[in-house]
Each structure stands twice: as C-alpha cells, then as structure tokens.
Amino acid sequence: MSFLQRALNAGRFGRQSTTWVVGLLFAVTLYASVCNLLLPPESMFYVSTYTITLLGKYLCFALLALSVDVVWGYCGVLSLGHGAFFALGGYGMGMYLMRQIGDRGVYGNPELPDFMVFLNWDTLPWYWYGMDQFWFAMLMAVAVPGLLAFVFGWLAFRSRVTGVYLSIMTQALTYALMLAFFRNEMGFGGNNGLTDFKELLGFDLQADTTRVALFAVTAMLLALAFLASRFIMDSRFGRVIVAIRDAEPRTRFVGYRTDHYKVWLFVYSAALAAIAGALYVPQVGIINPGEFSPINSIEVVVWVAVGGRGTLYGAIAGALLVNYAKTRFTAIMPDGWLFALGALFVWVTLFLPQGLAGFVEKQLARFKSSSKTGSSASDLVEEASS
Amino acid sequence: MVRSIPIWILSLLLCLNAGRLAAEDFDAVVETHPVYELLLQLPKASFKTKNQVLKGLQKLSGNDAVPIMEMWLASELYYDKASRQQIYRVSKNAEGKFDIARLLRADISLVPTQSIDKKLLKKVRTNNKLRKALREAIARTTLVNGSESERLQAVNAMLATINSDSAQLIEAALENEKSGEVRELMQVALALHLLIDGTPEQQLSALPQLQERLEPAVRSALNNALESAEADSRLSLALSNTLRKIEDRIEFYGLVEKLFFGLSLGSVFLLAAIGLAITFGVMGVINMAHGEMIMLGAYTTYVVQLLMPNHLEYSILVAIPAAFVVSGLVGVAIEQGVIRFLHGRPLETLLATFGISLILQQLVRTIFTPLNRQVASPEWMSGALELNPVLSLTYNRLYILAFSLLVFGILMYIFKKTNLGLNVRAVSQNRAMAKAMGVKTQWVDAMTFGLGSGVAGVAGVALSQLTNVGPNLGQSYIIDSFMVVVFGGVGNLLGTLVGAFSLGVTNKFLEPVTGAVLANILVLVFIILFIQKRPKGLFPQKGRAAE
Q1: Residues of A near B (CB-CB distance < 8 A)?
Q2: What angle do CA A96, A101, A105 make, to 5 degrees?
Q3: Which of B387, B383, B409 is nearest to B397 (CA)?
Q4: Half-sphere exposure (CA, 13 Å, Cβ side) for A323?
Q5: b/e string for B412-445 if b means 16 or more Cβ within 10 A?
Q6: Helix ranges (DSSP H) in B338-474
Q7: Do residues A229 and A3 make contact, with C-beta atoms less than 8 angstroms apart?
Q8: Around Cβ B469, how many Cβ atoms within 10 Å?
Q9: Which pLDDT belongs to residue A66?
C-alpha cells in the first residue's frame, strides 16, 4: 500500500492529476461496463459493444502514448520506433491466440496455424513453442520487446547517440522490423499477419462479456501503469531522469551513470508499449506488419505532443482526443484526415509547444494568480512544464 | 457552323489526295519494280515456288528486298483476294489494331491506306522451312550489302545455326570485308564451324580463336564438343581449358554487372540524399518532408510531359529546371513559414516537417488520385549499351549515374567557390559570428533550404525514369537518405557521396546471397551498429563547430 500512498502523495499537482485520472478511468469503465451488460439495447443509456471495443482501443493507445511520454517528455529521448515494441507485444499475444484456435482453422490442423499449412510447413518453428501457454506467451510478449529495447538502448546510450540521430535510428529499427515481418519466411504470417482469433483463456472473443472484461482490464492496467510511472517519476530515479533531460553532461559530471538510467527507463517504456500491444490485439482481432510502419510510431508522438509531453495525464488525454478526432474525421471525410493530422503536427509544434496540458495549466495559473496574486502560481507552471 | 468550315475543306483535300494516289497505282504506264513483279507470283505459289521467289529476291536486289523479306518473315505480307495484283502490309500497332499499308508498284515503298478492309486481304503463308530460309536470306543479303552494324548483326544471327552453307558464305564475305570487328567475328564463326563439324585436329586449331568469346553459341558448342571428345584426352583438356577461361570471363563480367547495379542504386541514393545532406547536414534542419520534395519533382516531370505531348524527347530536359523551381519554391515556403520559428529545436522541427509531409502527400493524392502515374522515358534514354554478349548496361541507369555525379559536382562548386556557399558554410559553422560579420542569416537559411529542396526535386525527375510516380514515392527513400547522410558524416557532401555508393554496392552484393528484403534489413542493422561505433559518421567534421 505504501507504493500507492507514495504515488498519491507525490507533489501537489501530481496528486491532483493522479486522483483525477484514476478516478475518471474508474468511473468511465464502471459506467460503460454496467450500461453495456445490464441495460437492454433499447435503453437510451445503453453503451454498444462497438463503443466498448472502441474505448478499449483508445485506452491501449493511451497506454502507448504514456510509454512514449515517459521517455520523451521526461528524458528527452524522442523515440520514433515505439510502434515496434507495441507491435512485438501484439505479436506475442497474437501467437498465443493463434495457438488457441487449434483445429478450428480452415485447414483443421491441430498444431500448425493456417498460414503455415498454406506455406507447406510441417513443423512448428522453435520460437512458437510454449506460446500456447498464456503465462509464457505474456512473458514473451513483454520480455522480447524489453530485451530489444535493452540491447538497442544499451548500444545507443552507451555510445552517447542522442537527439535526432537517436530518433532516426529508432525509426530505422521499426522500418527494418516491418520489412522483416513482411517476409513469409519469418513465420509470423507475412503480409496478412495473424488473425481469425477465436478465444482467449477459453472465453469467446466475440462475446460481450469478454469485450467488457478486456476493456476493464485495459483500463485497470492503464491506471496501474499511470501510477507506476508517477511513482517512478517522483522517485530519486525520476529526478535523475529529468536532470538528464535538462542537462545530460552536467548530470554525468556530477557522477551519475546517465546511460544506465536511460537504458532502464527505455526498457520500462518498451514494456509499457508491449503491454499496450498485447491488449490491443484481442480487441481489434488482427495484428499485421503494418503496425511496424514508421508513420504509426510518429502518430503516437503527435498524441503526446498534442496532449502535452512531460505530463503523464497529458499523454493520455492527447491519445484519447486525437484518436476520437480520427474516428470522427475518417467517418465524415476520409480524405481530410491526413490534412488534419498534418496540420495538427505543425500547429501544435508552432503554437502549443507544451501541448494542451501546458495550455490548460497556463490558463489555470493565470486565473489563480489574478484571483489570489500568490506566488504559488509560478511554482505550479514550473512543476507542470518539468 | 463557322468552325466546321475548315474541317470541310480539309476533308475535301484529303479526298482529292486519296483519289490521286489510287489513280497513280492503277495506272499501267507506271513501270513495275522487279521485286514487285516477283512478289506478284506469291498469291498462287506453292511453297516450292515461294522458295524460288525468295531466291529470286536475293539475286535481284541488294538491300531493297530486305524489308520485304522481313515483312514476310513476320507474316505481315498480304495480297488482295479479288485481283491478286496488289500487295499489302498488315501490321499490328501499339494499340492492338491493324494498320494496313499498300506497297507501291513503282518503288516498293509503303503508303498507309484506309480504303481496304482487312477481310478482303489474304496472308502470304509461310512454313517453318520457309521461315528458316527467309532468316538466312536476310542474313546473307545484309552480310554483303549491309552497313557495318548490320553485318555484325547478320554474323551474330548466323552463329547459332552455323553450317557448311553459311560457313562458305561467310568465307566468301570475309575476303571483301574491311572492318576489323566484323572480320574478327566472321573468323570466330568459321572457327565455330570447325569446332562443330571438323576433325579433332581442326577442332584444336579452332580453339585459340574461340578463347575469349562470350557468345552463348560458342559456349554450347564447346560443351557439346567436350562431351563427344571423351576419348581424346588432349582435345578434351584443351576444350575444358578454353571453356574454363570463358567461364572465368563471364564470372568477371557478372561482377562488373553487379558493381554497375550497385553504383546505379548508389546514384539513386546519392540523388535522394544530397539535398538532405544540405538541409540536414549543413543547416542542421531535420526535414522529414524531404521525400515529398522528391515526389513533387517526379510529379512535375509528369505534368511537364502532359503539357508537351509532342515533344516527349525533350520534356525531361524541361522537367529538370521545372522540378528544381517547384520543389525549391515549396522548400523556401516551408522554411519561411514553419522552420524559421523552430530554430534550435530539432525534435520539434522533425515533427512539424513530418506534418508537412503528410499534408503534401494528401494534396498530391487529392489532385492526381492515389494511383501510380507512368512517366515515359525518352527514346535516347531507353535501350542498353551492349559491351559484349553477357554484359549490357541500360542507358537510363547510365544517364542517371552520370547525372547524379554532375549534380554532385555542381553542388560542390556552389559550396566551395561561390558567395552563397561561403555564406552557408559560415552560418553552419557559427551562426552568431556570421551574423556579427554581416551575413544575412535568414536569407542564407531560406536559400540553403531552397537549394536542398530543389535538388531533391531534380532527384525526383531522375527517379521518375526508374520507378512509377506515386504519392508514396518520397516516403520510401527518406529513411535510406537519412542513413546515407548519417553514415557519410553530417555536414560533409563528400561523405554523402562515399556513403551513397558504398551502401548501394553493399546492397547489391548482398542481394543474391540473402534476397532483396533481407539485404535491406542487414544494411540498416549494419548502419545502426556503425553509428554506435562512430556516431559522427565516416567523415566527421573536425573542430569545435561540430559539437
């Protein structure tokens, strides 16, 4: 309990936003679940299963945005390749779901997924072994991206690759993985990816209850990730991380092994992204190499930029807002979305460098200072922009 | 009504003209060309008489009959069913429709005609034997009467089916042959004939002549001879020696070809990356919309081609400056509108320019539809330079290779020798100091960015000759371009040159071993590892300015 308490007690503004975020998440989840499961479809308060799935998807994206914010907003490491960790987590879950299909596939092979039968393979590749066990699959779904992040981060941070170079390298990483996963020989379904899932832990994936449960689990894990990130950022470790962002050489001269801090933060962030991916796949029902494409990763960065980097709740809010806008926009005028997204990039970087969170906090501070003319306002802004 | 009057007059004139032609043709006063006389036998001829007609054709004329024989070989020779006194040529055009042309009685030239339907015509039929005879006849005639390249071609055509007849023919032609190249090939043909039909001694004597030949006919003849020469150990040793020498040479040319493909890919990389080397390397601005500048250049080529459909040959020459201007202006607009305000914030610049790239892509998709557009290559860029039978280099790749080096040279000149270059280098090394010395940094920024973008547009013109033009054209090069610049060393144009060519060649040499996709991945991984070791690239900038 001390972890929760410490997380909740951290910093004045931190405490406020934490309570708000966790509370809102809890309330929305409860409301949506109850309205979906208990109310009849005719009721005006009924929440359709489609909406539940959509909300679940948004929350996965929010978790992904959170993971990018942790490294970008707090440590200044702009990763344009977090989609890779997300997709790898998704593939981990996808492999488990694939094995759960068993002999209900089109070819009815109890061992091999359909696409392997189609490719005339007669045995399961070694890396598919054990993926029929849920715990093992989930372990792999988080461990493999984590390991990749560790190796990549260890190599990059140790040789002090920073700034734009690092960004471009992360982009190259996800690009290379995309090319690799497009190959049939990789054993991950090539172009089509993994799909046609039937059930998760014995629960039918199409059932309303399963959908609601997945949504609730996503919300819960998002809340947990939020609290954990809050805790980390308020700890000594987090202080060093922020110091690295603001003045890396100085931090190094003071005596911190900055590369170690950065690597572990990177691994933590990759694990969050992987969890988001693993939650995403059963809800949308497919994972394919398109998830690795560099533009996806860059979109995540925009969510964070719009919401306000360096504030955990900003990243979540940004992901939810932009994705809601995307859903609406693509329905009304499909061609307009890329215009809007592109304009959003330019607009946010030019006019809202701190994102919506920065904007709201500035307004709040102005409001408070005009009513109280206290000195706490400048304090507040500093905290928010850090 | 008024507008239709010229059309009326025109059609009237056309009618008159057609009438005149028809009158001329049926006029018996016109003397009939001897070739035409012979051809008139064809409608009623059996295959035997057709053979005789062919012999007559050969005897009668020098080069005149060759086009006729070629038509005949291609089954394009027709006569009219009714009178059997008219010879026509019916050929399929590019759209798959039939073009009909009439052979004139007087000088056997062709006149296009619409007045007769294809149904009223009958084809002059051929069989395999006749086709073979036709091919030989064409080769023979050109062997004596053709131009140098035609003679070469004729001997080449005879190589595959050399027999004592054609050997005799070649021997006869050799006596009067002046050109050394044709003589050499003729001697090869004779040696080949000896190898196929001769005694072991003759075979042995033929070998030195064949040692360095790469023609497939020579190789297969050597293989055949080797198989049948089991008993004669001296001969088989000599044969296998010769064969090995030839195969070594083929392997060598295979390497040369791979190198050429690698250099060609490298030239594409260079063109795509050189603009980036300016904006990113020299100015330090991350322009994620760089790929879209390339795309704009490619679309400019397409539009220029649409605007001047009658001058396809030169449209690409017009497109180069046009693309430079279009992309350059867009680049200046981006610099003035967005990047200027994000100075010293590279990550934000990256995001904003990425947003611009999305907008540009969508814009192009809205205007030109998402479908790929085809840009036609001019005549002088198609075809291949055939160095020898196993090595031919396509002209478009050669031109692009030369063009990329030219662009590189011009840029080097601008940077090293002009005022603009001096200013750019000054600003990139120490902005504050340059400003203090009176350099208009803002103007220099805009010009540099415009230059980099314009060069990207020019790269788009070159790329439009190699691939289809689509909205995603630029996107596929942006990561490679960044890799090239980072690999070569930021702020160093020469590094970009070396980086582009070494990556291109590495890629092409890996490809046969690993497959194209895996080669791409391996190169990316290699660069990622390379950057770990040398974060400043191959040729890091020296001095304090680099930090």
Answers
A1: 78, 152, 155-156, 158-161, 163-165, 167-169, 171-173, 175-176, 179-180, 182-183, 294, 298, 301-302, 305, 335, 338-339, 341-346, 348-350, 353
A2: 135
A3: B383
A4: 23
A5: eeebeeeeebebbbbbbbebeebeeeebeeeebb
A6: 346-368, 395-417, 419-429, 431-436, 441-464
A7: no
A8: 23
A9: 92
Cα B65 to Cα A24, A135, B54, B247, B499: the distances in Å are 92, 83, 10, 40, 56
Query: Side-chain half-sphere of A343: how many Cα atoms within 13 Å?
Result: 7
For residue A63 the two structure tokens come to: 């978790």
Query: Quick one: which of A354, A356, A264 has its CA closest to A316?
Result: A356
> Quick check: helix, strand or coil at residue A97?
helix
Measure in Å the smallest separation between the Cα of A38 and chain B Cα atoms.
44
Three-state secondary structure call for residue A42: coil
Give the C-alpha separation, B547 to B542, whole Å. 9
Task: Among B338, B366, B532, select the one facing A155 at the smallest CB separation.
Answer: B532
Q: Which site among B286, B287, B350, B356 would you substitute to test the A interface, given the most A Cβ atoms closer than 10 Å to its Cβ? A: B350
Please name the residue that has the structure tokens 């009909």: B100
CB A44, CB A212: distance < 8 Å: no
Give the CA diameter of chain A: 75
B358 and A155: CB-CB below 8 Å?
no
Give A-chain residues touching B333 at CB under 8 angstroms: none
Choose the mutation target among B338, B358, B359, B526 for the interface with A, i.e. most A CBs under 10 Å.
Answer: B358
Query: Which helix (H) or strand (E) element contains residue B102?
Result: strand B98-103
pLDDT digits (tens, 9 = 90+) for B411-455: 999 988 998 888 888 888 788 888 899 888 888 888 889 999 999
A195 in Cβ contact with A285 (< 8 Å): yes
Residue A142 near residue A274 (C-beta atoms within 8 A): yes
| Average pLDDT across chain B, whole number | 79
Global pTM exceeds 0.90: no
Cβ-based contacts of B547 with chain A (< 8 Å): none
Mutate to test the interface with B, among A71, A167, A346 (most CBs of B within 10 A): A346
Residue that wins the pLDDT comparison between B368 and B347:
B368
Contact criterion met (CB below 8 Å) for A157 and A262: yes
The beta strands (E) that lie in A279-384 are given as 286-287
DSSP assignment of A355-366: HHHHHHHHHHHH
Structure-token match 């499961």, residue found: A37
Nearest to A127, CA basis, from A117, A118, A115, A136 = A136
Tallying the residues shown for chain B, one arrives at 547
- Four-residue CA torsion sign, A139, A145, A146, A151: positive
Domain boundaries, chain B: 31-146, 149-252, 253-386+398-542
Distance of alpha carbon A230 from alpha carbon A310, whole angstroms: 11
Coarse DSSP helix, strand, coil percentages of chain B, rounded to the nearest 5 percent: 70, 5, 20
Residues 6+ apart with CB under 8 A from A255: none
Q: ipTM > 0.85? A: no
- Of the ranges A102-116, A127-141, B125-139, B235-249, the best mean pLDDT one: A127-141
B383/B396 Cα distance (integer angstroms):
8
Answer yes or no: are the C-beta atoms of B112 and B72 closer than 8 Å.
Answer: no
Q: Topology of B253-386+398-542 in CATH?
A: ABC transporter involved in vitamin B12 uptake, BtuC (1.10.3470)
The whole-number average pLDDT for the span B323-332 is: 93
Q: Which residue of B has its CA nearest to A163?
A: B347
Helix (H, G, I), strand (E, B) or coil at B107: coil
Whether the CB-CB separation of B79 and B86 falls below 8 Å is answered with yes
